[in-house]
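Blinded run. Sample ID left blank on purpose so nobody reads anything into the name before looking at the predicted structure. Input follows.
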Amino acid sequence: MAGRRLQFCAGPGEFLAAAGPHLAADPVVSTVVTTVAHRALAQQATGISQPDRTWWLVVSDGSGAVVGAGMRTATFAPYPPFLLPMPDEAAVALACALHERGEEVLAVNGALPAVVLCAAELARLGGGRVGVSQHTRLHELGELVRPASVPGGLVVATGDDVELVMEWFAAFMGDADEQAGRPRGASAHEMPDRAEVLRRLQTGRLWFWVDETGERVHLTGANPPSFGVARVGPVYTPPAQRGRGWASNAVAEVSRRLRAEGARACLFTDQANPISNKLYAALGYRPVVDMANLVIVR
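Blinded prediction complete.
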């Protein structure tokens, strides 16, 4: 990889200092990495340490300009790295570097084609074949189109709601498994723990839609803005409440509030789920970049 350099940073502060301007230049595409980096920085300030396997990656060209980034921060096995766009040769060089470091990498998530090239080289070096766990698509809100109104409105979820929020988070992930053709529960290891859910509740960034009787019929969340971009999710409606417009109205209102704060709104969809893709398109969300979650099967 002539002229290019891979710099592994030990902490989010060092990473943001090096890659911040690059990430800020395309903050929608960078949303996952910037959100996690800023969250890790905040947790570090309160004494919450990161796992030993954590790293942050800055890719530079021959002139020293940053041309790519990535991270390995996942708290669930097999701890997949997440890659942002980078030159093709950098993605291959990263696989070689990880192999030389003795890191076991059995999954890679993030932007295409970087994840495909990295995973293919990892499989070549360590054996196995590359499979697709999920094709995702990142969308950004253009002009917000309000849906037909329904009764009720948003209320902020609080720490008192942690049990219901935990239950609905798990159901949301189970539905995502089924929609992607995976066994229900295959992604249960990605479920945030109670402490993390409580932290999210404390930020005031999880909302219920309540109907005219006050019943909680839907849950929508959003991350705090990072470089001016806030990512919506999860978006979950219990099966008995579906088809009534709760989700479209909740996402529209959350999106409106994010815009009112001065943030750009974005969200991910599973490309295999035509219902959610159609819903968000109707609200004014437009595709930005395709990503994938890949696995290496040995």
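Unblinding after everyone has recorded impressions. The mean pLDDT is 94.
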